Amino acid sequence: MTFVEVRPILLKNCTASCHDGQSNSLDEFVFKDDRGDLYERLLAPLPATVPAACQNRSLVVPGKPDRSLLVAMIEKPDRPRGDCAERMPHRCPERRSCVTPGDVKTIRVWIEAGAPVGEAARR
Q1: Structure pTM?
Q2: Residue 74, exposed/middle/buried by CB under 10 A (0-12, 13-18, 19+)?
Q3: How far is CA 55 from CA 22, 85, 90, in A?
Q4: With the C-alpha atoms ordered 17, 37, 109, 84, is the resulting torsion angle positive or negative?
Q5: Which of 42, 52, 57, 59 is in Cβ range 3.0-4.6 Å of 70 for a Cys bridge?
Q6: What is the DSSP-derived secondary structure letter of residue 13?
């Protein structure tokens, strides 16, 4: 499993919902990959525009899905988010679809494997 399999899940659930750089998202984290640096941004600390409880955390901690904020944000409501934000996509399941259990599992397995990028994602 590599970022090649994970990228479409993020684009479908995050970019299409809110984090496209043009919506009224509360933070500046953008999931579209027009600059080709989405993978690197997932592993970097979040920008200062996110809520204080989220700052200095990374969305993805390779090898540690339970420490990865991305996993906490998309799993069921009983998953601790550290007062960072509500479950994503925003207002799921009331107003939009949540990330499917299969897609959550794909992301977890990818992170657990060390979040490999894969050669196709580098092109």
Answers
A1: 0.80
A2: buried
A3: 22, 11, 19
A4: negative
A5: 59
A6: I
